[in-house]
């Protein structure tokens, strides 16, 4: 099962984090109920992040989100994607 918790661009990690935090808080009881459903082995929150053209890419997940995920028993996943190109090169 896959549920989108944010519709923001991959380049807007702070916005995705705000949306995800709100979703988790607003749906806490349903998430806890889902965890107990037969066959559910794990729940993961996957953040799609756009690769940036930098020497070292570092992204911060605030302790409030980490604590919320831990309290709900949710794993944090980060999926990195190439930045979109403005056009095809020949």
- Largest sheet report: 2 strands, parallel
How many angstroms separate the termini? 39 Å
Number of domains: 1
Q: Structural class of the secondary structure composition? A: alpha+beta
Low-confidence stretches: none
| Alpha-carbon Rg, integer | 15 Å
Amount of beta strand: 15-25%
What is the number of helical segments per DSSP (H or I, 4+ residues)?
3
Kindly report the oligomeric state of this protein.
single chain
| Tally of strands | 2
Form type? elongated
N-to-C SSE series?
Answer: HHEHE
Which strand order does the major sheet show? Answer: 1-2
Helical residue percent band? 25-40%
What's the arrangement of secondary structure elements?
Blueprint: H1 13-26, H2 28-35, E1 43-50, H3 63-72, E2 74-81
Parallel strand pairs: 1-2
Describe the structure.
With 90 residues, the protein is of the alpha+beta class. It has one domain. Helices cover 36% and strands 18% of the residues. It contains three helices and two strands; from the N terminus they run ααβαβ. The chain has helices at residues 13-26, 28-35, 63-72; strands spanning 43-50, 74-81. α3 (63-72) links the parallel β1 (43-50) and β2. The longest helix has 14 residues, at 13-26.
Key terms for this structure?
90 residues, alpha+beta, two-stranded parallel ribbon, 2 strands, elongated
Short description:
This protein is α+β, with helices and mostly antiparallel strands. It is built from three helices and two strands.
């Amino acid at each position: 099962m896959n549920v989108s918790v944010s519709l923001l661009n991959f380049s807007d990690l702070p916005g995705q984090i705000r949306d995800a935090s709100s979703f988790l808080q607003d749906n806490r009881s349903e998430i806890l109920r889902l965890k107990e459903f037969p066959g559910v082995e794990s729940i993961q929150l996957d953040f799609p992040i756009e690769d940036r053209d930098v020497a070292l890419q570092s992204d911060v997940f605030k302790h409030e989100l980490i604590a919320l995920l831990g309290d709900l028993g949710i794993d944090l996943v980060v999926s990195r994607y190439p930045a979109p190109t403005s056009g095809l090169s020949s």
